[in-house]
Amino acid sequence: SAPGRFADYFVICGLDTETGLEPDELSGENFEQTPLRRTFKSKVLARYPENVEWNPFDQDAVGMLCMPKGLAFKTQADSREPQFHSFIITREDGSRTFGFSLTFFEEVTSKQICSAMQTLYHMHNAEYDILHTPATNDKESCSSTGDCNGTSVSKLQRFNSYDISRDTLYVSKCICLITPMSFMKACKKVLEQLHQAVTSPQPPPLPLESYIYNILYEVPLPPAGRSLKFSGVYGPIICQRPSTSELPLFDFPVKEVFELLGVENVVQLFTCALLEFQILLYSQ
């Protein structure tokens, strides 16, 4: 039986420099996109511990759900704000385990990856020029009118470009907690503080491994009806578990539902739930 730990796994997902840039089949064909706008296959780079008997690690599911859009590449000209999301893995017996992921961007230090991205751009631009070079007669009309679609589209197509001698390449990476209960706010704070410690110019008070060990092995699940306070890298973290007589744990801000769906859609959704209609949410 599970020992009642706050978290079962700490996971790192991202770019495997040994296998290099692999297209992400789950995202569909996207070769018409510029290389910086394509998605590439992410992998589970590390997990701690290796396995726990009460919650076997599903590498494929965790890898896909941690980074559902695969690897993303950006340059110094793009916004690189960290993004947080959560997910649920439901097993065949109906039991659930919860995941919380913080995705951020870090500089690519592998020269091979940078060269591969540059090569993809050379190939993409060459193919694009072949497909969009106007015929001889068209060139004359373009020059006379000053309005050539091939030229304008080419400029737009090459706007999001990468030059290895000029640009800094960044790739997405993810740190994740796999937990038996959905303490979203606490997990988000843990991950944000770990990320802050990695990116801060000053080292944290203790080695990062100490904080990860603490969250995995020393922080227990709070008993029903009780709250729990434990130390993060830079400050205390608090979570509360409802008692058996209260509504189940729901640690997500309801405000976000209204922001994402709007009041009318929320009312319609609530009406459908009360009338026991089947509901399908489709998201981009």
UniProtKB/TrEMBL annotation:
Gene Ontology molecular-function annotations: guanyl-nucleotide exchange factor activity; small GTPase binding
Q: Does the keyword Nucleotide-binding apply?
A: no
Could you list this entry's UniProt keywords, alphabetically sorted.
Guanine-nucleotide releasing factor
PROSITE patterns on file: DENN
Q: Where is the UDENN domain?
A: 24-284
UniProt xrefs under Pfam families: DENN, uDENN
**Domain of life of the organism in this record?**
Eukaryota
Listed under GO biological process in this entry are: retrograde transport, endosome to Golgi
A single GO CC term, please?
cytosol
User: What is the protein named?
Assistant: DEN5A protein
Which source organism? Answer: Rhabdornis inornatus
